Amino acid sequence: MSSETEIDTSRRSALKCLAFGGAGTLFMLSGGVLAPLDLAMAASKRTASAMSGIPLFLQISDTHIGFNKEANPDVAGTLKQTIDLINAMPVKPALAIHTGDITHLSKPQEFDAAAQLMSGLNIGELHTVPGEHDVTDGIGTEYFSRFGKASANKGYYSFDHSGVHFVALVNVMNFKPNGLGGFGDAQLGWLEQDLKGRSSSTPIVVFAHMPMWTIYEPWGWGTGDADQATSYLKRFGSVTVLNGHIHQIVQKVEGNITFHTARSTAYPQPTAGVGPGPGPLKVASDQLPKMLGITSVKVLAHPLSASLTDTTLG
Amino acid sequence: MFMKTSGRNLIGALAAAMLFAAAPISGIGIAGASEANTVVMKNFDFSPMSLTVKAGTSVTWQNMDGEPHTVTSVDGLFRSGALDQNDKYTFKFAKPGTYKYLCSIHPRMMAAIIVK
Prior knowledge:
The complex is a heterodimer of chains A (314) and B (116).
Chain A (H helix, E strand, L loop, with lengths): L1 H18 L5 E6 L2 E6 H5 L1 H6 L6 E4 L14 H13 L7 E4 L9 H11 L6 E4 L13 H6 L9 E5 L2 E5 L16 H11 L8 E4 L18 H8 L5 E5 L7 E4 L2 E5 L31 E8 L4 E8 L2
Parallel strand pairs in A: 3-4, 4-5, 7-8, 8-9, 9-11
Antiparallel strand pairs in A: 1-2, 1-13, 3-12, 6-7, 10-11, 12-13
Chain B lengths: L6 H16 L15 E5 L2 E3 L2 E4 L3 E7 L8 E2 L14 E6 L3 E6 L7 E6 L1
């Protein structure tokens, strides 16, 4: 299957990315080919100003506040480090998105601690979607009482910023029989209506917790009805799909759609199929900061493109 | 191996359990020991994947994994919320029936309680 080849290609990119270690990697999308650049070079002010545009938004994912096992006994500390890293950016993006698993066990005190930490972020707007760890208590409870206003408690919503149309989707509450995530018909119907009538030249950013393409079915790393969603997105000139859930970077480009998963700020997970299941991966403590981080995204209108930058804590 | 949780095997297990329960043998199908009413979550599996109990029995689940799991019934009858390592959850099954459930964090983990 060609998609497998593409996934393999993206894995190679992710490996290259890890190989750059603490410096991180900037992925520039040029002519459909992903070219990793050394982030240390890109981060210097001269190079940064030479590249047009400033990051529009950044993505935080899988903070898992409440986790306390050996893979990272201090997830609050690593989130704090992440926030310090963002606050030290010379040019800060206008928005932040959190792609879910804000908490580990959906407990009120975990949401409170996460809110307390995230309030230290010097960015005006924070938009969220739930991960499956945030909604173990069901529909209409802790997550929705805190973040449900944007969506009338549905969890999915859209908004516009700087000419970019953002779509927040929920794929952790309608599981498919094979264990993949799902949107469900009501949400897909809403998405079709939400996109209908928008110009194909509008840059689109979609974010949801679970990957919107099948990375590894035996661990449920995919969304069963994602094809329906991507069929509505295909006609747009620039679509960026951002997910979390797997605590590592995997990327794929299909036509005008770039799919990308972010690192966690809490702990890494094994690569697909290694070990009994997708649980926390214990690594040497000096390696951990290199496996945690965030993604920042620039969207350029002319020529229409998006570029993603992954930055690690260490 | 992880493939143990595939739906086909689960259906097989359920079918086997139903055949077994339907067989005209008394005194074997329902064990009386308390651990027989316990299901553990270990290595991303429910064990046993199919448990048969009498109506009125309380079933207790315990998570042995470092990763949290949930006990979430497919039809919404019961929901444990997140169970961290060693946490337990108990639900009393009043009426006969087949109650399918899954872990809402790892939904490939599927199992059933059969109440006679």
